[in-house]
């Protein structure tokens, strides 16, 4: 009879691992894009001062125009690790935080892309020391669009964690398999076999082993 093939991995377990990998990847990608967008140019600011002072140009980054973008990026990167570390209800809570962070991130990017982001010009004029200066702000849509994409990815990742995360494996599974399960007792140790009486053959072999080692068996 030919040997039977090893049992295949259950489809549900394989699918759970794939879903976990996708969720963690989306969460990490969303956080990375958010942090990248927060340090880039979101708006060009032109300050027209009273003559004879020349106009000046400033740049507003994502962290200045929308401070929550960088915070959401850090939270999403931390959540990518937390999704793996926790299980059960804790994982659902992490998924909700990821979805909310993605929503805030996407909303900030959408407002900047559509030109409806509230960019306060008072801080710019106070920095140059001219309260009467005319300030014009021109939004740049490239990096806000990246933040919008990052927000969509964050919402998708959070929704996947909330809906499917309870069935995914966690970091502790490998240790649970090798350790003693909770609530069970250890198997009793096997009794030692009684020592066999030494025979003449045993003494003869011991003498030859002593000679091989260079010992005198007669001593």
Automatic annotation (TrEMBL):
The chain crosses the membrane at residues 67-85, 92-110, 141-163. Residues 172-219 are annotated as: Disordered. This is Putative membrane protein (TIGR02234 family). Pfam families: Trp_oprn_chp. The keyword Transmembrane helix applies. Keywords: Membrane, Transmembrane, Transmembrane helix. It comes from Modestobacter marinus. Signal peptide: none annotated. Residues 178-192 have a biased composition (Low complexity). Residues 195-219 have a biased composition (Basic and acidic residues).
């Amino acid at each position: 009879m030919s040997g039977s093939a090893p049992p295949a991995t259950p489809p549900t377990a394989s699918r759970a691992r794939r879903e976990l990998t996708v969720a963690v990847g989306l969460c990490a990608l969303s956080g990375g894009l958010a942090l990248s967008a927060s340090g880039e140019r979101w708006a060009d600011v032109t300050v027209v001062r009273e003559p004879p002072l020349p106009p000046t140009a400033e740049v507003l980054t994502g962290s200045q125009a929308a401070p929550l973008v960088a915070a959401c990026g850090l939270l999403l990167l931390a959540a990518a690790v937390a999704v793996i570390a926790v299980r059960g209800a804790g994982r659902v809570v992490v998924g909700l935080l990821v979805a909310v962070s993605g929503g805030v991130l996407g909303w900030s990017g959408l407002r900047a892309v559509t030109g409806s982001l509230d960019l306060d010009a008072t801080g710019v004029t106070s920095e140059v020391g001219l309260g009467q200066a005319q300030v014009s702000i021109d939004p740049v849509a490239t990096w806000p669009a990246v933040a919008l994409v990052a927000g969509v990815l964050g919402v998708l990742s959070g929704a996947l964690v909330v809906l499917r995360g309870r069935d995914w494996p966690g970091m502790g599974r490998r240790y649970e398999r090798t350790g003693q399960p909770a609530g069970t007792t250890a198997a009793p140790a096997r009794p030692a076999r009684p020592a066999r009486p030494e025979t003449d053959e045993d003494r003869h072999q011991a003498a030859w082993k002593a000679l091989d080692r260079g010992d005198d068996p007669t001593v």
